[in-house]
Amino acid sequence: MEYKYHHLGIPTKNKIEGMFHVKHLKIYCTDHESNPFCIQWMLYEEGNTLPELVQTLPHVAFEVDDLQEALNGKRVIVSPNSPSPGVMVAMIEEAGAPVEFLQFDKSVRLK
After folding, report:
1. CB neighbour list of residue 36: distance below 8 Å, 6 or more residues apart
2. Residue-wise pLDDT tens for the chain (111 aa)?
3. CB distance 59 to 98 below 8 Å
4. Which has the closest alpha carbon to 12: 34, 33, 27?
5. C-beta of residue 89 within 8 angstroms of C-beta of residue 81
6. Domain annotation for the chain: domains and CATH numbers
7. How many angstroms separate the CA atoms of 104 and 58, rounded?
8. If you write DSSP's letter for every residue of 51-69 in order, what string do you get?
9. Between β-strands 75-84 and 59-63, what pairing exists: parallel, antiparallel or unpaired?
10. From CA 37, how far away is CA 92, in angstroms rounded?
């Protein structure tokens, strides 16, 4: 299994300039592609259903070719879902920290 670094998500309690709203997920976040290290600040709205671990600790995210294979034998804390067209994501807990996997539909992804 190959893991390609995608972003570092860091929870915050403060709104940061440039954040955009992902209404259906109840999250505000910055664009991870706006900086050279792909850091993404994340503000979780009240009523967000993501695990507390995800809302309180930073997570590292990796692009994978096969999401199901990446999840095999792992402690899944966010089941596979599609937050936007062309991508499936899921999260695991590894060594007490959240880790996100993303699988992109290559026919949809432009970058």
Report:
1. none
2. 999 999 999 999 999 999 999 998 999 999 999 999 999 999 999 999 999 999 999 999 999 999 999 999 999 999 999 998 999 999 999 999 999 999 999 887 554
3. yes
4. 27
5. yes
6. 4-104 (3.10.180.10)
7. 22
8. -HHHHHS-EEEEE-S-HHH
9. unpaired
10. 22
